[in-house]
Amino acid sequence: MEVVDGQGSPARQSMEVAIGVTHRLIRQLLGDAWRPLPVWFPHGAPANMITYRSIFGPSVEFGHDCSGILLEARDLDAPLPGADAMMAQHVKQRRSM
Predict the structure, then answer these.
(1) How many Cα neighbours within 13 Å face the side chain of 40?
(2) d(CA 51, CA 46)
(3) φ, ψ (nearest 5 deg) of residue 41
(4) How far from 37 is each of 7, 17, 67, 69, 73, CA to CA, in Å?
(5) Which residues fall within 8 angstroms of residue 64, CB to CB, at 6 or more apart?
(6) Strand locations in the chain, DSSP E?
(7) Which residues contact 61 (CB under 8 A, 6 or more apart)?
(8) Contact in structure between 67 and 40 (CB atoms under 8 Å)
(9) What is the DSSP string of 41-58?
(10) 3 state DSSP class of 36
(11) pLDDT in tens, 60-97
(12) Which of 9, 26, 64, 73 is the most exposed place for a label (fewest CB within 10 A)?
């Protein structure tokens, strides 16, 4: 994932917000027990890691070529704990119309 500003430069703060929101969304979908493999950022590690670790957990890595959240393949196949089976059936019926 890459976010650029008006001059085409990567926008670090915007990227960190986007990764944080995505991380939170995945956790809401898969439950609080979900943990990513590492969360990656291209910039160097800050002197104080408290905020990063409180948001992303212990597996935060810096100095990568890109920003991202590495998932297990099973995370992509996991049933959603908050899924509504009746709504899913309704959507399937509407799609086949």
Answers:
(1) 13
(2) 10
(3) -135, 145
(4) 33, 19, 13, 7, 11
(5) 40, 41, 42
(6) 39-41, 60-62, 68-69
(7) 38, 39, 40, 41
(8) yes
(9) ESSPPPS--HHHHHHH-S
(10) coil
(11) 999 999 999 999 998 888 888 778 888 888 888 888 77
(12) 73
52, 50, 51: which is closest to 41 by C-alpha?
52
> And the tokens for 33?
């027990």
The C-alpha torsion from 49 through 22 and 75 to 46, rounded to 10°, is: -20
Q: Could you report the per-residue pLDDT of 32-51, keeping only the tens digit for each?
A: 888 888 999 999 999 999 99
How many other C-beta atoms can be found within 10 angstroms of the C-beta atom of residue 38? 16
Q: Which pTM does this prediction carry?
A: 0.72
Distance between CA 19 and CA 91 in Å, rounded?
A: 29
The answer to whether 45 touches 62, Cβ cutoff 8 Å, is yes
